């Protein structure tokens, strides 16, 4: 092009346009001062749209998966899978779901065994549609957290030395803020956090962080409430509930239970220094190894298990430290094998934007190293409950009553310790004309049980779980009449 022949007014127009565009650009940048991605990641959502997931049933909603860099310097990135609500996604809230462990995957458990729309088929070959998926009622976001869990990674190995509750909450907060940059239409959406098991710690901890950082912030997150299933809440109450439940459900003898009652002080810093107590609690765990602690009355997976009995139960005794022994949250070891074979397929990893389908990532449902090395764990999140209650957040807790890991007794002891006034006393709640469980409303907390459900309630009671989720979102009492 010969510029000498270009009329003068064309230059004027170009200059005016440049002047006009410039202020728009800088004002856009102002929205995201501390959360600008420096890497090559395309900030638009479209490059994470999942289009050809092997074995996926046909659906009429979109879903997205991929990495969000949470800390550029150390190359820490968290993997998420996001399902738009199956109808009217623009009008429905956004819910973040977290599984526990610590060290277990929310994709492997929550998304593909419990409440996501695609459940891993028992033969590992594909996915089957879940008619009780929670994305019927909300836009569902599943996060693999912290780094080292599932597909999430860091390129800085010293990060692993710092893993714990606080680290996890901080990275999850970074994740949410950066995820909003990719999905700006959700920035101001009504937001909830839900989870189970060790996420009983993660969920209130993240809610507290959001609450604290919301204060006058332009990065406000419209957090309205939290929902927790069979949650680890307060170590002393959780332990007392575990041993009392084992005794009352005929897992251990009267004699063992009596020794525990006489010798164990679960509120003490050195509970396990008492040999009588340690031995008696060991006996409880030994009996639980024979069955499925997460679901007392179902069969254990024997086939092809490389471990003995219910292979998924991992117990960590750290007698030298002040920490309580920990038992990992894990459920059906057979299902775990199916998920492992599915997520390690090259075509699946490529479709989920995890790898190029050639250099694969090694996915496993729980990272035992993370579980064993977990150093920073809040002994109790009840003080956070109090803070969130006074901040007006909706708090619902549910409990499958055949779980021995975080049994219904643990949750009752924990909630009782809050000493909240009772608004609606204990009564049954109904689903499809049957008693689903019982519930009680406190000032600030709703507590509900699921009759005959294990640790991961939605696996056992998919339809009534979806019902409870719906009542939670609508802030309505559970139905107390047939
Ligand atoms: C979110 O709400 C804030 C404050 O009301 C507003 O300034 C901002 O534009 C909204 N963001 C989006 C993406 O709608
Ligand atoms: C919010 O920030 C203001 C000013 O920094 C401070 O005075 C106030 O205590 C904060 N509120 C909460 C709940 O943290
Ligand atoms: C057990 O392993 C064998 C051989 O590896 C395999 O053919 C079979 O399908 C496996 N069974 C289950 C239930 O996974
Ligand atoms: C199975 O149990 C036996 C005896 O309790 C033990 O010696 C062995 O190490 C266990 N094997 C595995 C793989 O855990
Ligand atoms: C993947 O990880 C599992 C568990 O950490 C390990 O046993 C296995 O050897 C790893 N596989 C590969 C191919 O690295
Ligand atoms: C599991 O976590 C450890 C650090 O605790 C890490 O070194 C390892 O790479 C992780 N495993 C996988 C498969 O990501």
Automatic annotation (TrEMBL):
| Subcellular location, principal | secreted
**Entry keyword set:** Carboxypeptidase, Disulfide bond, Glycoprotein, Hydrolase, Membrane, Protease, Secreted, Signal, Transmembrane, Transmembrane helix
Compartment list? Secreted
Similarity field: Belongs to the peptidase S10 family.
Record-listed E.C. numbers:
3.4.16.-
From what organism does this protein derive? Spinacia oleracea
Q: Does the keyword Zinc-finger apply?
A: no
Which biological process, per GO, is one annotated for this protein? proteolysis
Q: Name one Pfam family in it.
A: Peptidase_S10
Q: Know the name of this protein? A: Carboxypeptidase
Query: What GO MF annotations does this protein's record show?
Result: serine-type carboxypeptidase activity
> What gene, per UniProt, encodes this protein?
LOC110787154
Where do the TM regions start and end?
A: 6-24
The signal peptide stretch is none
Kindly state one GO CC term assigned in the UniProt record. Answer: extracellular region
